[in-house]
Amino acid sequence: MEFKLIDLIGNTPLVKAKSLNPNPAVQLYFKLEGQNPGGSVKDRAALNMITSGLERGTFSKSTPLIEATSGNTGIALAMIASLFDLQIELVMPENATKERVQTMRAYGAKVTLTSAEKGIEGARDYAESKVSGEGFVMVNQFGNDDNWKAHYKSTGPEIWRDTGGKVTHFVSSMGTTGTIMGTSTFLKEQNSNIQIIGVQPTDESSIPGIRKWPKEYLPKIFNPAKIDRILEVSEEEAIAMTKRLAVEEGIFAGMSSGGATSAAVRLANELKEGIIVSIICDRGDRYLSSDLFE
Prior knowledge:
One of its GO terms (molecular function) is cysteine synthase activity. Keywords: Amino-acid biosynthesis, Cysteine biosynthesis, Pyridoxal phosphate, Transferase. It contains nine helices and ten strands. Helix 1 crosses helix 5, helix 6 crosses helix 7 and helix 8 packs across helix 9.
């Protein structure tokens, strides 16, 4: 059978926790999104945003695209843009890991680095200025319904299928919120009793890929009614659990996955029974130049 690269996006493995699950009455599963060809869950959203935008005529192959990103969405967009011969500029804070910047450039994208002090909000402001002043079209992961619909069409159905419809709790870190919005929408349609748990950092913590957005930057695709509960994790918890994932489960992932796993383990401790599915957002190799694994 002949495959195209985009055929390999999705249908990622669901693996059972070997040692991190503290409660034998609960089943804890990890969905390994690092197995996508671009290395993260963002491949799903990038593919749907690009293909749907082209189909609708929101942009064409001659349209310059731009997007602000903290990393994984940018890598995914760079990969998908290369497959469709699109030109794209990706905007990131200058403290992004070297691996992320180099990967985007390897796919042929232009990468612009903005002030680390202003964070992803500053990158978003820069991208907005290019849209209003220079005729760029923003992919707009924070406000594009094709982001969450990617997970409605793929992530949610896969979890439902692979648990035989028995999933009781879904845990996901929240950045753009596309993963949790789309997966929640699908799973709640199958069984409204499924609990959706979002993960955010504590106020003093900085965890790449997880955000507690200021009101003016809150993603437009976010609907709080689709989440049953929010658990907060500290930076220290996320780092420690990321390392434990590698050592105890053989899962090499980034800090946002450690944050989600911390929340999932905490949840497992509370339950009398259940089947928890937690998203492992990406692979750990794009964090090697940081101090995450030191």
